[in-house]
């Protein structure tokens, strides 16, 4: 099984860069199946099959397993429709906040794709210049340091001839970290620019470079290898990959400049007395032990990926006491108490720039996370003004998560009667239920078999996540509802 994590903007481009269409109207060429009022797109099918862990009975790339995948996704829609009719959702308020957060994240990503990425133009000479270095893999030793002053002193020692491994051994135990970085790796752009230059030499000292988690890195170049593309098709593919990488870099730069513009002059100030206590309590929730983190990860992988998206709130009990009416910070002249802040967290969980941190670092990282949350709120306001929320892709994305949630409720109700059974036994009981739902809704199910036949799947296990966003999980977990490979219901799309 592979765990793949990408920068938040990049991976969603495949989802959001599409042909122009009227807002809210789903173009027919993207539709794979219709289940009553619900839609399964071709991209939905591919992403649900490839970006989550499929069970053993449909994990392969053959035609039978592909049909089981389609039946499973249709079954998810059918069970969601059944649960939706029942109503009485005990978590409706919280789930609606979750869907709002999902919607606004999709809006921000769609806005970036439409306004910046798709509007980016690059010259041929830019592509050719980068193409010559695109096959390079550079080996470096590196040291991460907490502040710039220390980093500058370390650089001076390196320039005076002291070996990097000696410096590392003096500061910490063990050997200095080594890494091989390719031109296509998604490293920070400043690091990429420092490494991939035509005048690069072995032994060069690079940095200090400020990282995205507010530390500083110094690197020494140990050497590199160049792997040219030999075959014509490989050269063509590399050319397109280089072009995409340059477009992404330029678009991201333009986007961040725009964000800096809308945030210019805005004031954010913490209430130190309350914030200190709040940070101490919050650290207990956000800084988990390795075993707790692994347990949550396992549950996200195999059961409910939405667990990774859940906001965390800080309890008030303890000494000194925290009360919801206490002011945590002020923003643009408005006081934000703990209650108001926690309400916002229900739709936008905190995103920390630094993924691994100790308790002493946590207050500073919490401050940055709150600032980034307020920034996202300002971006979201601009998205609402633009009308981007009316785009059909936003509605389908929300429908995807909503139906997955309703289908999980169906499974929860079913499993109460089937507790103690193995997965195989539960599926034996589920299969006839799904068959009956297929029969009931048969006249409302339509499948584009030509599009289905053209899809090719892999047999690689992956869970794909995004970095730097409040909702990192790309797609809901695969619906374990049926092992049936028959497509003997519904109608073929004309």
Describe this structure in words.
The protein has helices spanning 13-16, 42-50, 63-86, 92-117, 124-131, 148-159, 164-171, 189-195, 232-263, 272-286, 290-302, 338-345, 362-386, 392-417, 423-440, 449-454, and strands at 2-7, 31-35, 38-41, 136-145, 178-182, 205-210, 216-226, 268-270, 327-331, 334-337, 445-447, 462-467, 491-492. With 494 residues, the protein is α+β, with helices and mostly antiparallel strands. A hairpin with a 5-residue loop joins strand 6 (205-210) and strand 7 (216-226). Helix 4 packs across helix 13. The model is unreliable at 1-23 (pLDDT under 50).
As residue ranges, the low-confidence spans are: 1-23
Number of strands: 13
Estimate the mean pLDDT confidence. 88
SS element count, helices: 16
The largest β sheet comes out as: 4 strands, mixed
Regarding quaternary structure, what we see is: single chain
Strand order in space, largest sheet? 3-2-11-13
Total tally of structural domains:
3
